[in-house]
Amino acid sequence: MNPNTRGRGLGGWAAGFSLIAGVGILVGLGPTSEGLGSAEPLQASTEPSPDGAMPQDPFDYYRTNIEPLFLRSRGYPGSTDGNAACVMCHVWQTSVRFSLEEPTETPDGGAWTEEQSRRNYEVVTQLVNASDPESSRFLRKPLAVGAGGLRHTGGAHWDSTQDPEYQVILDWIRALPAAEFTPADALVAVDFQYYRSCVHPGVLSVGKYGQLPCTSCHAAGLAGFAPRSASGGVLTVAEARQGFESLQRLIVPGDPEGSRFLLKPLHPDGGGSYAHNGVRRWQNRNDTEWQTLAAWIRGELTGSECSPVY
């Protein structure tokens, strides 16, 4: 795939697919050689199967009932045309955890081949937690914050956990074997107290090499992980909690190398992200500050005792 053309024509895929899917959840998506199956509303179960078993292979169920949702028109915050879909961001934004394959064009718009679907499946199953299905990022990112969801640049797709799409995905996750589909980050807790005592005052509030501190750009809004105290002093617990929660969307607990919080300010030559409007705080991963934050994300640093690097 040519990276310069990746993501072009997404509106056509989504629009073509939406004519088929309508407002229901698509079922019967067959291999590309068979074209797209007919669309029928799927009656979502709000309870797991009595025997805990899934009537289909987990991949087949995913491909038939879940993957088509990624092409369903959603609308985008601030727009009125309603043409956007998950693929509008999650195909070309390769730095996000939910990074999908570019659909293969078909006369009806677009679809994924079985090989592409298997690659998408590997990505999606990294975002589920069969040991605690309701905590899965795959469920919480599109869910409204007021209903227990996480902040999402693409907006909330479900107002409540009773949404049929949410329930279909939840039933699928419940039926997955926990031994295979419990992420490592579910076992790692990134410590809030260390953020309040060490990360915020010692890193986010302090410029490095004469550069602006993180608080200059990230004090508020969706990316407000470095808030300023209203009193001008130390953050209150509530202010720190708000910043800590905002930071969660940039952290993969247990995986510093996969955390955008550590990749965005890292120089590209040192393995960092190419996209960052701010400064590069670290030239490489050997930086002691980077290493300290990595240890925190791995769950190794807790409490209010700060490393000498601060």
Description:
The structure is a single chain. The chain has 310 residues and is mostly helical. It folds into two domains: 10-183, no CATH class; 188-297, no CATH class. The protein has ten helices and two strands, in the order H-H-H-E-E-H-H-H-H-H-H-H. The protein has a two-stranded antiparallel sheet with strand order 1-2. Helix 2 (58-66) runs antiparallel to helix 6 and helix 7 crosses helix 8. It is globular. The protein starts with 9 loop residues before the first helix and ends in a 13-residue tail after the last helix. Residues 1-8 and 15-52 have low confidence and may be disordered.
Primary descriptors:
310 residues; two-stranded antiparallel ribbon; single chain; 29% helix
Q: Would you kindly provide a brief summary of this structure?
A:
This protein is 29% helix and 2% strand.
